[in-house]
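We were asked to recover a plausible sequence for a given structure. The inputs and outputs are reproduced exactly as logged, with field labels preserved.

PROBLEM: sequence recovery
POSITIONS: 364
GIVEN STRUCTURE:
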């Protein structure tokens, strides 16, 4: 059975060392000094969660009251960060290597498996609240699993989160390895293209409606100019007046178009809600990737939570590589879109090497 609002309020206050006594919908309390300042209440008083009209010495504590809203201040920075363990997944190393051989391939490079070993790995389960605002609003929570060890990222659905949370346990031993600012920066950089991908339908809808409205405005003002053109006159004074009218029409049209662009302009806000730092043991497969005369060592882990390989994201766009994987001459791991020919000069180049600009003709 669910607790009443009065009981929930009492439980919250008890957790912060407030002395209290419940009487129906009312709570008589004695609050410590720090709670008085946070909630802006006197040292002694009565809270009432009913919706009746209260005496001046009774503090309204119904669901939409100022007091109830202020309870959120007691939870600032609570639950935003936690450290947990996840049980290791025992896998046959030979079977795992065969599985990788069937999963991994490079379009222009070869690789050798050196060894498979079990290593401690660190993951971050990150929750971000996003909000896209234009003439409409779209908001939600983006949850993804970031690997500090393998620099991979996976967007999670509700079922995957439930499976992970069911297996998490409190971490009792002290560890020196934590998610630092550099790791979070990589995770946020990886989050951006994922977020744009999630908002693709929303942005496409904005673009269609913007084009529709701009076409209507352009058509309207085009018809106005046609009407003026049909009223031709040989009188110089009338001709000058017509030019001024056309100029005014163009000016008003441009103002309307700019107003539409402002209306459909989209801003995106994203803020971190919580981070769960997960420690576990992972089977890591060490590879040597060879491309022409250069080679590079890469570790790929088998994620015990998602039961899949933690393959690094594209080192140019930070998206998961869905299809073909390429290795450039400097051994960057990139996706097909980031290792392509320039549409102007046909120069094949890596966007991780040249910051998305063609090194031959300079085309962005």
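RECOVERED SEQUENCE:
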């Amino acid at each position: 059975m669910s607790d009443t609002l009065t009981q929930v309020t009492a439980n919250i206050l008890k957790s912060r060392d407030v002395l209290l006594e419940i009487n129906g919908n009312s709570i008589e309390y004695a609050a410590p000094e720090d709670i008085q300042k946070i909630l802006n209440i006197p040292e002694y008083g009565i809270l009432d969660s009913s919706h009746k009209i209260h005496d001046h010495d009774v503090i309204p504590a119904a669901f939409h009251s100022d007091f109830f809203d202020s309870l959120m201040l007691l939870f600032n920075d609570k639950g935003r960060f936690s450290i947990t363990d996840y049980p290791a997944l025992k896998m046959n190393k030979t079977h795992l290597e065969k599985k990788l051989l069937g999963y991994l391939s490079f379009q222009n490079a070869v690789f050798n498996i050196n060894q498979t070993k079990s290593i401690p790995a660190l993951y971050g389960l990150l929750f971000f609240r996003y909000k896209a605002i234009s003439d409409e609003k779209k908001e939600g929570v983006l949850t993804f699993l970031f690997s500090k060890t393998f620099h991979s990222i996976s967007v999670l659905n509700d079922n995957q989160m439930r499976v992970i949370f069911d297996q998490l346990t409190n971490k009792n031993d002290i560890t020196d390895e934590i998610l630092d600012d550099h790791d979070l920066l990589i995770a946020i950089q990886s989050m951006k293209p994922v977020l744009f991908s999630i908002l693709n339908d929303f942005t496409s809808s904005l673009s269609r409606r913007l084009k529709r409205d701009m076409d209507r405005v352009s058509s309207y003002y085009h018809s106005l100019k046609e009407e003026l053109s049909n009223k031709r006159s040989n009188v110089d004074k009338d001709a000058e007046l017509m030019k001024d009218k056309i100029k005014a029409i163009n000016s008003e049209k441009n103002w309307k178009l700019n107003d539409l662009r402002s209306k459909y302009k989209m801003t995106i806000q994203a803020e971190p809600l919580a981070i769960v730092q997960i420690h576990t043991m992972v089977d890591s497969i060490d590879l040597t990737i060879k491309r022409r005369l250069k080679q590079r060592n890469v570790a790929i882990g088998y994620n015990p939570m998602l039961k899949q390989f933690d393959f690094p994201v594209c080192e140019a766009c930070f998206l998961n590589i869905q299809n073909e994987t390429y290795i450039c001459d400097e051994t960057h791991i990139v996706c097909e879109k980031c290792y392509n020919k320039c549409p102007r000069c046909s120069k094949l180049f890596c966007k991780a090497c040249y910051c998305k600009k063609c090194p031959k003709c300079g085309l962005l």
